[in-house]
Design goal:
By secondary structure, this protein is mainly β. The protein has no helices and 23 strands. 36% of the residues are buried.
Length: 360
């Protein structure tokens, strides 16, 4: 007798399974390199499943490490410089070195997240070079360099001065002035006249080159018979030369001229800003130099209507400040935005000029 046939799908009872389980011997599953392979009995379909492999990551080698880009060094003061750069795509850190001197303020092995630092402990007016490389573990990129020269310290020297008390004179001179050729000069002038007719006609002489330029001036007193002026000039390099100031009127009572030579300044453009004040009392207070840089220098010049003692402003050194006089001039290598003042021995009218000197 023939065995009964399995009913076809249409005739199968509802409780029949829709797919017969293959024999145990017919199924083998192997996982080989991420592939799932199902082997079935002869005549049955074979299914192959595969996951898409992840794209390979480019390897970093010594030859592919990129150097930092945009590496710059900028002087920030007489003793500091700011370094900055742009990081490459792949790195674990950097190496940084300095020539000359010893690196300070910046790490010799900056972290991978560092893109700027400030080098400190530098010397004024000195050229420095920094060398930077990218590190990837023990590999290093090619190096890049950046250089900067720190600001010079501004200084001021009184070369010569003279006081003219010849009544009614219309010009006054300073003899024996030896200047450095091309150096910047400040000529500080105080005059007390017998009338309120004041004014400078010209500043000239063999000690200066070209035509001096007015920086600032201030008349004071009531009536205004006193005035202070500051002129910028260039040294001629002449030994034992002269500086002569001609006035608008021959009404001199007393005139004093200070010839001051600058160094460490921005040659040819030494004046950053200036300000004037006038008033009366026992304190002569100068103008506030808004935004003045501590890397710049400052000259403070004061004239009085009545002779008096004048104290040296805090932090300043005297250029020309007699014990009791009608004028005084002082200098500091670090300019201040705060108004400078001198205490007077008696109450009197005063006029002042404050000048910020650009650093070199």
């Amino acid at each position: 007798m023939r065995p009964a046939r399995r009913p076809d799908a249409a005739a199968r009872p509802a409780h029949w399974h829709t797919a017969a389980r293959p024999p145990r011997w017919a199924v083998r599953v192997s996982l080989i390199l991420g592939l799932a392979i199902v082997l079935s009995a002869p005549g049955e379909a074979l299914a192959l499943f595969s996951a898409t492999p992840a794209p390979p990551t480019a390897a970093v080698t010594a030859a592919t490490i990129a150097a930092p880009t945009g590496f710059t060094a900028t002087a920030a003061s007489t003793t500091t410089a700011t370094l900055s750069w742009t990081a490459p795509a792949k790195l674990t850190g950097y190496t940084l070195s300095q020539s000359t001197g010893t690196l300070a303020g910046c790490s010799a092995a900056p972290s991978s997240t560092t893109t700027s630092c400030t080098a400190t402990g530098l010397s004024a007016g000195t050229a420095y070079t920094w060398t930077l490389t990218t590190a990837y573990n023990s590999w290093l990129s090619s190096s890049v360099t950046a250089s900067a020269t720190t600001y010079a310290v501004v200084s001021a020297t009184l070369l010569a001065n003279a006081t003219d008390t010849v009544s009614g004179s219309s010009s006054s001179s300073v003899p024996s002035v030896t200047t450095t050729s091309g150096a910047d000069l400040l000529i500080l002038i105080y005059r007390q006249g017998s009338s309120a007719s004041l004014g400078v006609s010209s500043v000239s002489g063999t000690a200066v080159s070209g035509t001096p330029a007015l920086v600032n001036s201030e008349a004071f007193g009531s009536p205004a018979r006193d005035e202070v002026w500051a002129y910028r000039a260039t040294g001629s390099g002449t030994s034992g030369g002269t500086v002569t100031v001609a006035f608008a009127a021959g009404n001199n009572v007393t005139t004093t001229i200070d010839v001051v030579q600058l160094s460490g300044d921005k040659n040819g453009s030494p004046v950053a800003q200036s300000g004037v004040t006038s008033g009366s009392g026992t304190t002569a207070t100068g103008a506030s130099l808004t935004g003045a840089s501590s890397s710049d220098g400052e000259i403070f010049f004061a004239g009085l209507a009545t002779s008096a003692t004048m104290s040296t402003p805090s932090g300043y050194s005297a250029l020309d400040a007699p014990g009791s006089a009608l004028h005084g001039s002082w200098f500091d290598s670090s300019a201040s935005s705060t108004a400078i003042a001198t205490t007077l021995g008696t109450s009197t009218a005063y006029g002042t000029i404050a000048i910020e000197i650009n650093h070199g």
